[in-house]
Amino acid sequence: MSSVAAHPTGLGSYATRICDHIVRHYACSVLAPPHLALPDGVERIAVPGAVAIGKKARSRFAHLLNLARRQAFYLKGPFGKDDFVYSPTHHGFFNTKNQIVTIHDLIGLHYPENFPRQTRFFRSVMPRLIARSRAVFVVSEFTRREVLQFFDVDAGKVFVVPNTFDCRGVQVARAEDKRDFLLVVGCHLPHKNIEAILDVAALWSDRYVLKIVGATGYYGDRIRARVRDLRLDDKVEFLPFVAEADLDLLYRQAAALLYPSTIEGFGLPPLEALARGTLPIVSDIPVHREVLGEAAVFVTLGDDAAWASAFAAIGTQGAALAGSAARQDVLDRYSAETVGRQFDAALLSAVPDLRCLRR
């Protein structure tokens, strides 16, 4: 958990959920920065706060100092030579070969211009970390295929342990909860492809407003400029930072979630929308087919007719979604219990001697 930020999203959320399973079912210690709370009775191995992803530096010098500290930490991790280390992220250590790392996606290798530092890491560092690992965990079959394509690794060493979403306590939307807006969640990078939604505004803007959560950074600026150019200011609402309770309400009230990514390692927001009974309209890419099965509307990017058909389906498919077998099948497949069993099977297949640590 050494790289998990104070307010985790995406990769950090996955790490947190897997960690919850591990501390309940295995005798372990957790490498964690000071800002992460751990359950009572779990031993914390202290990690400098600078190691966490997203740690903001006050100056260029402080930023470089944080990078140096992070590199030093992973060159010589704070554990013994006989300890086994599991990382729920791609951040592994160079002072052990008794570890498992987790690769969430290889998007940086597809879009190096958008992820220069990550691209360098995956090209030069990741192959060496894989060579120093007992196994590699990935979050989808799609990412598994990518890992086998880009890296020299035995297929028998690569295991799928997907994202999970705990539906316990989640309120499912009722018909009267719905409002006339479309929701976009997580759109801070170009592969999220928000332009695809704006380009077909003529198909939705007469009926719906578009609410965009998380449009930050240079890509957020680009999307705002595109909205101005298309004169959609009164049809698009930007919500850069949203509290968890407010996001839950947005998911339930939305007529549909739009998720037109060109590539994903898994894609959690559509699953989060499904849990609330909200229809996901997603790009027709392999990982979305894998994760969402028949519980989403799939759109071929660049096909206006496909978008028109998707928007027309909101009324009928959206209303029927909450009680559908397709939705329940997806939620069962990615429940905490199901993914926990997948994790256990993968871990004990890769490192059988860890059976002695099971609680």
Description:
- The chain is an alpha/beta fold and 359 residues long.
- It folds into two domains: 11-164 and 335-357, Rossmann fold, CATH 3.40.50; 175-333, Glycogen Phosphorylase B (Rossmann fold, 3-Layer(aba) Sandwich).
- The chain is built from 13 helices and twelve strands.
- The chain has helices at 11-25, 60-75, 107-110, 116-131, 141-150, 195-198, 217-229, 244-253, 268-275, 286-292, 304-321, 325-333, 336-350; strands at residues 29-32, 43-46, 85-86, 99-103, 135-138, 158-160, 181-185, 209-213, 236-239, 256-259, 280-283, 297-299.
- It has a six-stranded parallel sheet, sandwiched between helices. It has a four-stranded parallel sheet with strand order 3-4-5-6, sandwiched between helices. It has a two-stranded parallel sheet with strand order 1-2.
- The model has no long low-confidence stretch (mean pLDDT 90).
Second rung of CATH, namely the architecture of the largest domain: 3-Layer(aba) Sandwich
For the record, the CATH class of the largest domain is Alpha Beta
Average pLDDT for all residues: 90
The ordered string of helix (H) and strand (E) elements is HEEHEEHHEHEEHEHEHEHEHEHHH
Output the number of helix runs: 13
Number of structural domains: 2
- Rg from C-alpha positions? 21 Å
- Strand share of the residues? 5-15%
Q: Report the biggest beta sheet as strand number plus sense, adding barrel if it closes.
A: 6 strands, parallel
Using DSSP, what is the number of strands?
12
Low-confidence stretches: none
Alpha-carbon distance between the termini?
Answer: 20 Å
Helix content class: 40-55%
